[in-house]
Amino acid sequence: MEFVDWSDDGPAVVLLDQRALPGATSWLTLRTVDELVDAIRTLAVRGAPSLGIAGAYGAALACALDEPDAAERVATARPTAVPLALGVRRAMTRLDDGPAAVLAEARAVAAEAAVVNARATERAADLVQELHPGRTRALTLCNTGDLACGPGGSALGAILRLHDRGALTEVLACETRPLLQGARLTVWELDRAGAPHRLCVDSAGPAAIASGLVDAVLVGADRIAANGDTANKIGTYMLACAAARSGVPFLVVAPEETIDPATPTGADIVVEERGADEVRGIAGLEHTPVYNPAFDVTPFELITAVVTEKQVWR
Ligand SMILES: CSC[C@@H](O)[C@@H](O)C(=O)COP(=O)(O)O
């Protein structure tokens, strides 16, 4: 079973609950659109490409329940990642052909993700080896592996391709406050792959780059504007600044569909702001006002290349 999948026993969307990792491997069976929307908002399923797959299956669920209008609530459950709404809307193009056709389209979205990921990660691994011949010390943020993208991953997938090629020295995984996608999920995936890694706090990332401990930074993307400005997990921008200052390659690895022609520049990207308790809870605070953007925007000038299944956009 994939981490995000369909169950005919229901109908239902079945997914590995990413909130419970790494402590528990717990599967959710979501039988209503409300349950799926809640799972998306609370990050039981997350990562832009996986949201696309969940969105497509969410459309199938809405149609199977004879509530096709509810699909739009799935599409808008989170605002920043492009693939979520694309997955819903692509599956819904088959609405007139009935629920089975919508499900078939959703299954096609999921199947294509694996092909896209394989192409993008091979291309990105090739580029890392071109820019840094020899073995690479990679730094990454958030989680961009199979959990976030479906089979093959994106940025973390490219790092694991380097590992497969014997070209990886180690991965520095930034923990990714406040929800610790790096510490909980990336480390889980690196452990499973047997790839050498160390965990660092997010603010150690720029210091590691400046200290010469990093040969390449690889991150994913939630939305790439038409000019190349890229929204990704909060903390990406400081890594890009540090990489540019130190002359370290900074690669964004993502499906081509993440490039949004309808978003001219980073200033036009809607950045999701999340609840205060995600930040307050860590310090045991109850009432302090909080600024908690889920993403930041990295200007294209700081990005060495955006690598997709179709192109290396330098
Ligand atoms: C290939 S996944 C790319 C991005 O979706 C990822 O880096 C990220 O920022 C995920 O944020 P999240 O809030 O965990 O959904």
From TrEMBL:
Gene3D superfamilies assigned: translation initiation factor eif-2b, domain 1, Translation initiation factor eif-2b, domain 2
Entry keywords, A to Z: Isomerase
Its EC number(s): 5.3.1.23
GO molecular function: S-methyl-5-thioribose-1-phosphate isomerase activity
SUPFAM superfamilies from the UniProt entry: NagB/RpiA/CoA transferase-like (SSF100950)
Enzyme kind, highest EC tier: isomerase
Domain of life (superkingdom): Bacteria
Family: Belongs to the eIF-2B alpha/beta/delta subunits family.
Protein name, as recorded: S-methyl-5-thioribose-1-phosphate isomerase
